Amino acid sequence: MSERTLKEIMSQRLAKRESLLNEGVNPYPYKFDRSHLITAALEDFDQLAEKTEISFAGRLMSRRVMGKASFANIMDGSGRIQLFISREEIGVEAYTLFKGLDLGDFIGVSGKLMTTRTGEKTLKVASLTLLSKNIRPLPNVKEKDGQTFDGFEDKEQRYRKRYLDLIVNPEVKETFVKRAAIYRSIRKFFDGSDYLEVETPILQPLYGGASARPFMTHHNALNMPLYLRIADELYLKRLIIGGFEKVYEFSRNFRNEGMDRTHNPEFTAIEWYEAYVDYHYLMDQVESLFKHLCADLGQSTFSFKGHEIDLTQEFQRAPMAELVAEHVGIDLATANEKELLTVCRKHKVDVDTNANYGQLLDELFDALVQPHLIEPTFVTEYPKAISPLAKHLRDSDGTFVERFELFIAGSEFANAFSELNDPVDQRARLEAQAALREAGDDEAQVVDEDFLQAMEYGMPPTGGVGMGLDRLIMLLTDNPSIRDVLLFPQMRPESKG
Description:
Elements: H1 3-22, H2 38-43, H3 45-48, E1 54-66, E2 69-75, E3 80-86, H4 87-90, H5 92-99, E4 106-115, E5 121-132, E6 142-144, E7 147-149, H6 155-160, H7 162-168, H8 173-191, E8 196-197, E9 203-204, E10 216-219, E11 224-228, H9 233-242, E12 246-254, E13 266-275, H10 279-297, E14 301-304, E15 307-310, E16 316-319, H11 320-328, H12 337-346, H13 357-369, E17 377-383, E18 400-408, E19 411-418, H14 423-438, H15 449-456, E20 462-468, H16 469-477
């Protein structure tokens, strides 16, 4: 639609609005008493048909004006229904109003349900009220034999203007209805295990709990910098220290990083912490959570990235170094940084020449192993150098820690530790991270003195998990991009050219 044509259409609709006002008709009334949602009425059609006066309210999506009688379709939040509107039934004034309506207008209608000669369930309209006048036309949508043509199909515009996407492609709503159901199911899982749902600060004087770049802002009254949280881990651990033994939080996190199919700078995660457990317990718990979700959703196998994934099977478990060793052919237990760097170059894995052992192993894993982890797999025993908040792997030399990440269909879904609770060791590790920052690693973690002081009061043995909920929704709804499961994803500014 050209800008000139758009301006003409909007001008015509604004003129209609003005004409209605001059005639004493309010094109934006305050309320309408509807008796039924469309889908609910259709489900009870046999009980309601031709007996009960009912009323619907919704958006006018199509119409066919045929002299003294017409057909139309309206859509509410639950579904669509056909309307039969005759001048004889609703009167000349109301029928004239109907003929002057535009697609996109909201209307309220009352009447009785009937079945047309073609077998379509229809409302025979006895009264009609304009509820909201549309000024800007909807995308050009044509329908024939139940099929939609010329719809709002441009993916980028659908993300930018989600409200139009929901109007023109109402099936999109199902992803977000299911998202809400998944949230309820997760809450039921943890509430049923005596966890306490809590809230911790989004604006933080110091960010931490993950390796990421933060967003920074300024508090005028306090005249101090603040950061949007990158994770809620360190605050939840403070609660464990304070005496809450099982806590969880649905948290909006913000990371100043690139965007791709699995990353948005604003995202939702759940983190939970439990005293007196370790990462072996957490693997069992995460697996139980997935099986709980399957039971609540009534589904065990999910299609994702072209794979059929059975989430009720036993999840696999394997140490990171063993998985990488299968691809590189050397003993990673004895390999040094120089040997790992040589392996990276051999496999064309781009790494910083100053990267440490843990970083090199992690890069090899990302390039050679992760894409092939299709079935649910807990990858365990991560390098200490990239895991500053996890306890040493018991009965080992300290190179690795008790950490796992869950991978499904080549994507990471959860990250968990046997949490480090030795304040002396924790301080040394955060100071080592600070040294990495000084050397140019802007994603290395910072020294949080308040958190370290809290740990010095004593923190019990604790297990903790972080899980990205947007990726989980992608998996459970078979959506390939994180933008498909966010109502309003972050987008680059539109080009003005």
